[in-house]
Amino acid sequence: MTGKRKHLFHVRRLRAVLLVGLALAALAGGGYLIYKYVWRSPQHPALLRWFDEPASRAELASSFDAPCPGYPFLAPSSGLVGGLPWNSTAAPYNLLNPHPGIDIFGAGAPGTIPVYAAYDGMLTREADWVATVIIRHDDPLHPGETIWTYYTHMADQTGVESYIVPAFPPGTYEKPVQQGTLLGYQGLYNGGSYLIGMHLHFSIVKSNPDGSYKNEAIFHNTLDPTPYLGLALNAADSPTFPQRCLPPP
Ligand SMILES: [Zn+2]
Predict the structure, then answer these.
(1) In terms of CB atoms within 10 Å, which end of the chain has fewer, N or C?
(2) How close is the Cα of 172 to the center of ligand 1, in Å?
(3) Structural domain contains residue 242
(4) What is the pTM of this model?
(5) How many angstroms separate the alpha carbon of residue 102 from the centre of ligand 1?
(6) pLDDT digits (tens, 9 = 90+) for 104-150
(7) Statement to judge: residues 183 and 229 lie in one domain
(8) Residues 13 and 78 grouped into a single domain
(9) pLDDT in tens, 124-137
(10) What is the DSSP letter of 54?
(11) Which range of residues forms the domain containing residue 80?
(12) Rounded to the nearest whole angstrom, what is the distance from the C-alpha of residue 171 to the centroid of ligand 1?
């Protein structure tokens, strides 16, 4: 082998080693992402326990009768608060559309676990809403801006029996409510698309320039509830249970 050919041989071998290295790194990175976001859903253990071992519920549940000190919003129901947290990519959500709110799984029968307004505001229940209300608020963290809190699944599995209190019939618009006003009870109604465990889905929704609420089903139309409630409610923070108030901001 001449000196030049020997040099070329070395360059090619170096290039091959680098390519194999890059391929291995890409595989490892992809594997890690799958591990982190698909296979290992950090919020699953407590949620699985909640349903598999009902005896565990007493030690996982929280109940709040006032907002956490220094935070504006009241946790709107009791149970496994944030059992499916905001920003979770666990099924049926995914990386492209994470969970746009928090789920609070109550301990008890459908129609018995109360749901309260998180903050003072003006309540709307659209004419065709079986299980849902939404409340308009002046954003306590950004005064002058409008945000909304959204509460759903408050009906039986079929949607025949609504668990929303009679004070808020379908076609209610801009009715004043206070923090802690009883809205209804946790239920099972999900439009009939798939079976859900009984819970409240709660989210904080941004508004359009005209002040109307954005589509709450789209993740980027919602806000991280953590700084409003003072609880660990973002999947990125790997919530633990029972929930305890975060230190005041
Ligand atoms: Zn939900």
Answers:
(1) N
(2) 23
(3) no
(4) 0.84
(5) 5
(6) 999 999 999 999 999 999 999 999 999 999 999 999 999 999 999 99
(7) yes
(8) no
(9) 999 999 999 999 99
(10) G
(11) 43-237
(12) 24
